[in-house]
Amino acid sequence: MFELTEMMIIFLILVLGYALGRIKVKGLSLGTSGILIVALIFGHFELLVPGVIKSFGLIIFVAAVGFIAGPVFVDNFKNKATSYILLGVVVILSGAVGMVICMKLLDVPTPLALGILNGSLTSTPGLGAALEATGDPQAAVGYGIAYPFGVIGVVLFVQLLPRLLGADMKREQEILESSSKGSGEKILVKEQNLLSMDKFGYFAFAVAICLGILLGQVEVPLPGGAHFSLGNSGGPLIMGLIIGNLGKIGPVSFKADKKTLEAIRELGLALFLMGTGTQAGSGLVEVLQQYGLKLFFMGVIVTIIPLLVGYIFARKLFKLGLLDSLGSITGGMTSTPALGSLISVAESDAVAASYAATYPVALLMVVLVSQFTALLF
């Protein structure tokens, strides 16, 4: 008899996940997020992958995103900093308001509701804050219930909205690219006379990750005795942005090959979704049977509200372009998988700049909201 080893499970999930992701229904597809669905099923049957796979995938994905967006990030942020910061705040607060309303109407315990909030926003740091503030493992249960739709809902949103609006995608791409020009050309000119440590830029990439992991471990004290840190998602992203923007340090080139970065980004996203899916799938059905579908629908509502509110603010108040708005919203939702889907929809890496600008603000806000909600309710 053949045995399903860990290596076999990993690659089987990739094969089936990519096959599922290619299926289109009225032009919509899950793309790489198809891996999450397959992984959830594998997890339900206790066919798990090592936990390090999820962490490794997340780190290399966000670092690659940072490197790619780095050359345009600073100029983009300078021009729209206020919009990005406020969007991060608005998206998280609107999700929190939706959670509190549902919590009261459905008589859901606070720890469970906080888990649903963080699952809807796919925020592991927020879950950590909720567990610390409440001391109740029910927060993890709520997170597991809401997380799958928190991923899939935002992935479908960034694909479906341009279609519903009848957007001219070529025109939207031009708007996005024109607002993202600036430092990229300057860095290319500087690169001509530098030394390179390796052909593909793995040296620079590894340096950014090492520094990013260290940055992610820095803890900032918050009211109530809690702490905030960027973690393995925020730290490598920020360092990727910084080093990607610099392009060089002294006489050494720190510019990585773009095709290499795109391949790393895709692999990282696939591994992250795989690890997350098998972890969330284990016991998910039992949890739904125990707590009922009302918690799942609560997660759906808490996912949809910030998407709609964020879009209205981005387009009507801050006057951002469609793709810029969607990039900011995915950052506000702290949705790593949705960014991968949006890059495919936009056919441009420039959307990563607005994601990266909003993401740190949202990350801080979701931790604070989890802390203060626990204190108030």
Written overview of the protein:
The chain has 16 helices and five strands. The protein has helices spanning 6-21, 34-44, 51-106, 110-120, 124-134, 138-164, 169-179, 183-191, 202-216, 231-246, 258-281, 284-291, 294-317, 322-332, 336-346, 351-376, and strands spanning 195-196, 220-221, 227-228, 248-249, 252-253. The radius of gyration is 20 Å and the shape is globular.
Supply the key terms.
single chain; 377 residues; mainly alpha; three-stranded mixed beta sheet; two-stranded antiparallel ribbon; 16 helices; 3% strand
How large, in whole angstroms, is the Cα Rg?
Answer: 20 Å
Strand content: under 5%
What is the oligomer described by this structure? single chain
Give the helix level as a range of percent.
Answer: over 70%
In what order do the strands lie side by side in the largest sheet? 1-5-4
Spell out the blueprint of helices and strands.
Elements: H1 6-21, H2 34-44, H3 51-106, H4 110-120, H5 124-134, H6 138-164, H7 169-179, H8 183-191, E1 195-196, H9 202-216, E2 220-221, E3 227-228, H10 231-246, E4 248-249, E5 252-253, H11 258-281, H12 284-291, H13 294-317, H14 322-332, H15 336-346, H16 351-376
Parallel strand pairs: 1-5
Antiparallel strand pairs: 2-3, 4-5
Helix pairs in contact: 1-2, 2-11, 3-4, 3-8, 3-9, 3-10, 3-11, 3-13, 3-14, 3-16, 4-5, 4-6, 4-13, 4-16, 5-6, 5-16, 6-13, 6-15, 9-10, 10-16, 13-14, 14-15, 14-16
